[in-house]
Amino acid sequence: SAVISQKPSRDICQRGTSLTIQCQVDSQVTMMFWYRQQPGQSLTLIATANQGSEATYESGFVIDKFPISRPNLTFSTLTVSNMSPEDSSIYLCSVITTGPSTDTQYFGPGTRLTVL
Amino acid sequence: TQLLEQSPQFLSIQEGENLTVYCNSSSVFSSLQWYRQEPGEGPVLLVTVVTGGEVKKLKRLTFQFGDARKDSSLHITAAQPGDTGLYLCAGPPGGATNKLIFGTGTLLAVQP
């Protein structure tokens, strides 16, 4: 299993500013991901955070807007840059752990971001 | 692009009732997963189904994977207020093994 913590749990930010979200895992994991979720709605994958190399972004998401760091196997950060109200969302960190017969994906509690 | 459509989108029922949530796609998935998410928390994995026609039970929850591996269902018997939450199906797109696409979600409210 994996226990994931995120900081901050929520924030209210002004338009044009940037926010960095931290994700800490209690064990070393190869695969870390960042998702975005509107409250009560589904999750959209932003990017895969790769340790030692640049993140892999999904269609519609770019590094300039969502720079990601992955300095080691237990930690990652996601920055939401030059924020606008459209960036208001819940941002979730996730990891995959490999078991004897299947992989399991675990999620952090999320960071609720409101941009005014 | 592979999509996972869930129905219904919202469901409000009384304690003790039964319900079924559906997850449908036009594409074949190698496996499908079901998650439940409560307010202020991340999704938590309930089950993974990998074989067409497979049925798995988790207490009052029954999960089925369609024979063609394009759809899945979640049936809850005698729902309880603790079942309230957002239910999400998810699967690996295009056979990918290291990421998931998520369904549109079903928000369930069980009234006491």
Order of helices and strands of chain B: EEEEEEEEEEE
Q: Count of DSSP helices of chain A?
A: 0
Tell me the fraction of residues in β-strands of chain B, as a range.
over 45%
Instruction: Give the structural class of chain A.
Output: mainly beta
Radius of gyration of chain A: 14 Å
The average pLDDT score of chain A comes to: 92
Biggest sheet architecture of chain A: 7 strands, mixed
Mean pLDDT of chain B: 93
The largest pleated sheet of chain B is described as: 6 strands, mixed
What fraction of the residues of chain A are assigned to beta strands by DSSP?
over 45%
List key phrases describing it.
heterodimer; A: 116 residues; mainly beta; seven-stranded mixed sheet; four-stranded antiparallel sheet; B: 112 residues; six-stranded mixed sheet; five-stranded antiparallel sheet; 50% strand; globular
Brief summary of the model shown:
The complex is a heterodimer of chains A (116) and B (112). Chain A is 0% helix and 53% strand.
Structure explained in plain terms:
Chain A has strands at residues 4-7, 10-13, 19-25, 31-37, 43-49, 56-57, 68-72, 75-80, 89-98, 103-107, 111-115. Chain A is mostly beta strands and 116 residues long. In chain A, strands 2, 4, 5, 6, 9, 10 and 11 form a 7-stranded mixed sheet that branches. Chain B has strands spanning 5-7, 10-14, 19-24, 32-37, 44-49, 55-58, 61-65, 71-76, 85-91, 101-102, 106-111. Chain B is mostly beta strands. The interface between A and B is medium-sized, with 22 and 21 residues.
